[in-house]
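ok so I'm stuck.
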Amino acid sequence: MTPWRDRFVACFCQSTPLHDETQWCLSGMSAAHSQRFLQHFPPDPVHAAVLVPLIDRPQGMTVLLTVRAHGLKNHAAQVSFPGGRVDPGDDGPRAAALREAQEEIGLAPSLVEVIGYLPDHLVVSGYRVTPVLGLVDPQHQLALNPLEVIETFEVPVEHIFDPANHLSRRRRFDNGDEVEIYDIPFGQHHIWGATAGMLLSLYRVLVEGD
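replied:
not stuck anymore, here's the structure
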């Protein structure tokens, strides 16, 4: 067991889903900073949830990520977390994230210990995503649904949390507003968009205490 596990549990064990609009985040920014840019996103986003799978390896904590199938309507071929919209039959974002992870990568819910949540993140495609943090049994077995996911890989938390790997760029909206967003390269993979934003939010909460 690595020290990261204890830090994650201690930091997030009391967290709950944050659905209030004043708490929504963009691109890993704080909720307060994000408020300025909400006008550029759909006013009534679809509620979705993703599982942020944390795996406590002997060499250190890692985060499991997926590469989405090329033929998907939204976010095709992008690096992402397993997840999707919260269906009417789901008992909240926790159930939705676990269901989607099982459907996409064959991860059994019984192998996931949910430890907390990050604030809801807005995505330009019209979704409001609740990140659900889960500790995954290192002995898990995966079975990918090729219509959804073509690959999974793990990124060390140490890599994600190293500021040297947070590559900033600026995005300009139609009205001239500019926002600083970040990418996280890792080997042949390029983590960007909402996924990078959620990882940066994880870093901000756990390391910077924001």
